[in-house]
Amino acid sequence: MMKVDVKIWAVSALLLACSPSQDTGTEEGKDLGLSTYYKDYFPIGVAVSPSALQGVQAQLIKDNFVSMTPENVMKSGPIHPQEEVYNWAPADKVAAFAKENQMKLRGHALLWHNQAPDWLFVDSLGNDVSKEILYQRLERHITDVVTRYKDVIYAWDVVNEAISDESGQFYRDSKWYQICGEEFIAKAFEYARAADPNVQLFYNDYEVINPVKREKIYQMVKGLQDAGVPIDGVGIQGHWSVYEPSESTLRATIDRFTGMGLQVQITELDVSIYPKEHAPRDKNEDDDDTFTDELKQKQIDQYDMIFRVFRENKEKLSSVTFWNVSDQYSWLDFFPVNGRKDYPLLFDEDNQPKEAYWKVVGF
Ligand code: 9MR
User: Fold this and answer.
1) Of 198, 199, 204, 238, which is closest to residue 220 (Cα–Cα)?
2) Strand-pair category, 44-48 with 153-160
3) Alpha helices by DSSP H, the chain
4) How far is CA 199 from CA 151, 187, 191, 227, 334, in A?
5) DSSP 3-state assignment of 154?
6) What percentage of the chain carries pLDDT values higher than 70?
7) Any residues with CB less than 8 A from the CB of 315 and at least 6 apart, and which?
8) Shortest-distance atom of ligand 1 to CA 108
9) What separation in Å is there between the alpha carbon of 75 and the centre of ligand 1?
10) Which one, 53, 117, 194, 325, has least CB within 10 Å?
């Protein structure tokens, strides 16, 4: 008898937990977890460091997210610091957590101008290597990293941020571009496809809401597709603010990349409480980092709009990922203004859901 009761209770609890339409579902204190509310829309992920995978944040991650992206540990500098040295342990930890908890994992990032190791670009005398040598190194790096996580990673950011922010310049003037020209982009996708025929391959960038940069990204991606380069999707990072984007700009941004036959994902979402700046600078006396009621309301409204647009575009978006877990720590505490606290996420400094969270799940 006892056993039957327990079973009935467990089944009802499961039904309750899986149903976003329960009218009590969005009341504070009866939280189903962010991803459960969105289970009929798109998977929701979060960028993590290995240190977030224990204690309070680990629980928060398990309760709210069904996907993860390693914030730093799979980038080429951290994971491949010297030509013959791989630092697998931190990345393995993220991969193991994903497997243990049946979470999806996005790989980030195989080729980036930032956080790339110095050895990659120079010979033993410190001179730039030829493009042939750079391609050999890139192929080995991509093959080794993609192969190691083949069993758990479903999508890779293959090339990150190759387009310039300057309106008069198409490609970013990176070490990759200086040595190889634009061809390195196609090569990276080809090496990744050869290492894993099944993984989804993405181009990922920020400031896609800027119409000039967006058009350059579109043209580049279209060019890759037309040339038969194995690209499966575009990652719109989404480092936004309470002041941008507007609803019409957000819609235009998503729409530009749909209809290409590619996946579109929001890969690095956060909503800063400050006007957006892209260059690092020192903190000055005008930098007030009080999270005022007015800013809280602006952030609630902005998150509300963003997720409404995402929901309306659920057929076009295959995933939405937040960049960091909670306001306890975010990369925006150090950038662009070092030491200026930001509050960009849906969970507060104590890892509790903010009002913006309740707004996002209360549809
Ligand atoms: O969040 C990352 C931060 O911890 C690193 O210090 C920084 C290095 O530049 O990279 C941050 O992540 C970036 C991501 O890899 C690519 N898009 C922009 C992200 C924020 O800068």
Assistant:
1) 204
2) unpaired
3) 2-18, 34-37, 55-64, 76-79, 89-100, 131-148, 175-180, 183-195, 211-226, 247-257, 293-312, 355-361
4) 10, 16, 12, 20, 33
5) strand
6) 92
7) none
8) 15
9) 10
10) 194
Residue 20 has pLDDT above 70, yes or no: no
**Overall residue count recorded for the chain in this entry:** 363
- Going 217 to 203 to 39 to 260, the CA torsion angle's sign is positive
Burial class (CB in 10 A: 0-12, 13-18, 19+), 160: buried
CB of residue 205 inside a 6 A radius of ligand 1: no
**Cα separations in angstroms, 179 against 57, 114, 120, 141, 235:** 42, 16, 11, 17, 25
Amino acid at 49: S
Q: Where are the alpha helices (DSSP H) in 149-286?
A: 175-180, 183-195, 211-226, 247-257
- CATH fourth-level superfamily of 34-361: Glycosidases (3.20.20.80)
pLDDT band, residue 119 (cuts 50/70/90): very high
Q: Please state the atom number of ligand 1 nearest to the C-alpha of residue 114.
A: 9
Question: What atom in ligand 1 is closest to the CA of residue 75?
Answer: 15
Q: How far is CA 152 from the centre of its chain?
A: 17
Between helix 183-195 and helix 131-148 the angle, nearest 10°, is: 30
pLDDT in tens, 249-258: 999 999 999 9
Distance from residue 71's CA to the centre of ligand 1 (Å)? 7
Take atom 16 of ligand 1 and give the residue whose Cα is closest: 160
Give distance in angstroms: CA of 78 to centre of ligand 1.
12
Domain limits, the chain: 34-361
